[in-house]
Design goal:
Layout: H1 4-8, E1 16-17, H2 18-25, H3 29-37, E2 44-45, E3 51-53, H4 55-69, H5 74-98
Antiparallel strand pairs: 1-3, 2-3
Helix pairs in contact: 4-5
Length: about 110
């Protein structure tokens, strides 16, 4: 288990109950359940089986709610967000690799 000081800055720490998450996102608890069904994310489960959400998951849920509010089908919104997230990860990895020295090459 993470130490309390570590949890404050951890966007992936499952700090929010379903009720609080729904309140923060401005959506219903059913909406959050549907995001899980669409595999936008999988909430952490407490020892008692209750869903717990991280700040990162709440940002994804808020993005999905915005898209649905603008008329995008939930399934399409989830797929778009997943693809955007994968693209951002790939771009970040590319930036990281571009910043490294090519292996075996030294400037003299």
């Amino acid at each position: 288990m993470a130490q309390p000081d570590d949890m404050f800055g951890d966007d992936d720490y499952p700090a929010y109950t379903m009720g609080r998450a729904a309140e923060i996102v401005g959506a219903s608890q059913d909406f959050l359940r549907r995001l899980d069904e669409e595999r936008l994310f999988t909430p952490f489960r407490s020892a008692g089986g209750h869903r717990r959400y991280s700040r990162y998951q709440l940002r994804l849920a808020a993005r999905a709610r915005e898209m649905v509010d603008q008329g995008t089908a939930l399934e399409a919104a989830c797929r778009i967000i997943i693809l955007e997230d994968q693209l951002e990860e790939a771009l970040e990895e590319n930036r990281r690799l571009q910043g490294e020295e090519p292996s075996g090459r030294r400037d003299s």
